[in-house]
Amino acid sequence: MYEKKSGIIKYYFDEWGLNKNIGTFSWLLHRLTGMILALYLFAHIIVVSSGLWGPESFNTWLKVVQTPLTHFLEIFLLACIALHLLNGLRIILTDLLFVTKQHKAIFWVAGAIFVLFMIVTLSVFLPRVFSH
Amino acid sequence: MNQKTSFSSAYGWFIQRITGILLAFFLIVHINILHFGEKFFIDFNMVTERLQGSFWWGIFYIIFIPVVLFHALNGVWGLVQDYRPSSGLQKTVKAFFWTLGIVATFYGILAITTFL
Amino acid sequence: MVEFRVFRFDPEKNKEPEFQSYEFDPYKGMTILEGLYYILENLDSSLAFRSSCREAVCGSCAMHINGIYRLACKTQIEILKSPITIRPLSHLPVIKDLVVDLTPFFNHFKEIKPYLIPKESPPEKEYIQSVKEREKINDWLDCILCGACYGSCPVCAQDDKYLGPHALLKALRFVDDSRDGGAKERIAFVTQNSGVFRCHTIFNCREVCPKDLDPTKAIAKLKLKAVFKKF
């Protein structure tokens, strides 16, 4: 008998290759953004906790993390948060109200909100990146 | 039907939804102030001024930190479970996540108190 | 002319599966299953696949056809773009070509006890079910156990202990049945480590179900029942 074994990362590509659905897409995005946000959370706690060693320490650390590059990467962070939040609310809506029939419509509504949010974000952050 | 009933999976799932809804609120407030505020550059004085401005900010972050840590670690735990680790490895990972979560919660709250 | 690209694997010859192409002229209204039979009869008699009723009732011929898990007998060649790629169901071991070993699939089905468990005090004559009570389980009855949902569920890929959409749908079918006395036992059973809470609400099972059932909804209902112990 033949049993396909896919690796830890390849598993996601295999599943996407076989099920090109809205559901698989949002699940993969939710995974990816969730991992990024979990890693960011711990980095964030470490940076903010530099205040424990006095205001100077905090200010030096924050100078390091507030450069044109990080302000540019912040756009991606906000995109991750928006995607994870909107998709999370979509799943909670399904879990509590059983709106499985409308799940595609809800997906596109969430997508539209995401696009609007990103337009606002870019209009705020792009000037910020170039104002250094 | 011989599998052991696991209430922690039920409560973990349910608390993940509750913390998710709470986080939607916390994150919108937190991000609106820090990333879309008038000041582009954050420093110690700005944070202290804001957190000392209202008593509620302290409460806000003391609830926010454990909620976000639970949501993050429980989320990663769900991912770990997808790979069907052995029960010994599951116990180790679970113990590690609980320790990490509790330590990070106290450390995070301690870090916030420097601004209060 | 239509081209079939069929997943081939012979445990005696190959170590890795390969795809083999077949070309033939389909007639109007020809289904994928009829195409496979045409290949079997005229082009390559070594091709193996399962089928029985050829009218979407038995659930034997579920396979992955051009990107979607569906029943070969219910899908016409006309609506698909050539070449048509045909794979067996995923997440199950392949015995030969398109035939998979459904043992894990049916084991999970048996685990949830797919039969009525009598109530503590059975009635003297029969279990009476009103029309209203019957309507409660209308949406969960039509499962033909084809395995399309199991193949499409990414959770089943890594974890062969995960009960799967089909078993969870059936579990709710018996929980909601007014004649069944085992609701408590059933909810307790699906609340296990590889049970209902491993579902990530990916909706694939709902998308592929050839009977238009909604396992995603059934699982969501089971989850809330398990949390609030409402049964």
Descriptive overview:
The complex is a heterotrimer of chains A (132), B (116) and C (231). Chain A has 132 residues and is mainly α. In chain A, 80% of the residues lie in helices and 0% in strands. The longest helix of chain A has 30 residues. The relative contact order of chain A is 0.10. Chain B is mostly helical and 116 residues long. Chain B is built from four helices and no strands. In chain B, helix 1 packs across helix 3, helix 2 crosses helix 3 and helix 3 runs antiparallel to helix 4. The longest helix of chain B is centred in the N-terminal third of the chain and has 28 residues. Chain C is 32% helix and 13% strand. Chain C is of the alpha+beta class and 231 residues long. At the A-C interface, helix 1, helix 2 and helix 4 of A face helix 5, helix 8 and helix 9 of C.
Highlighted features:
heterotrimer; A: 132 residues; mainly alpha; 3 helical TM bundles of succinate and fumarate reductases; 0% strand; C: 231 residues; alpha+beta; Ubiquitin-like (UB roll); Fumarate Reductase Iron-sulfur Protein, Chain B, domain 2; 2 domains; 5-stranded mixed sheet; two-stranded antiparallel sheet; 9 helices; 7 strands; elongated
Number of domains of chain A: 1
Multimeric state of these chains?
A: heterotrimer
Widest sheet, order of strands of chain C? 2-1-5-3-4
Proportion of residues in extended strands of chain A: under 5%
CATH topology of the largest domain in chain C: Fumarate Reductase Iron-sulfur Protein, Chain B, domain 2
Overall 3D form of chain C: elongated
CATH class value of the largest domain in chain C: Mainly Alpha
Biggest beta sheet attributes of chain A: none
Tell me the number of helical segments of chain A per DSSP (H or I, 4 or more residues long): 5
Name of the CATH superfamily of the largest domain in chain C = Alpha-helical ferredoxin
Count of discrete structural domains of chain C: 2
Low-confidence stretches of chain A: none
Mean pLDDT of chain A: 93
Approximate strand percentage of chain C? 5-15%
The CATH superfamily label of chain A reads: Fumarate reductase/succinate dehydrogenase, transmembrane subunit
Q: How large, in whole angstroms, is the Cα Rg of chain A?
A: 19 Å
Order of helices and strands of chain A: HHHHH
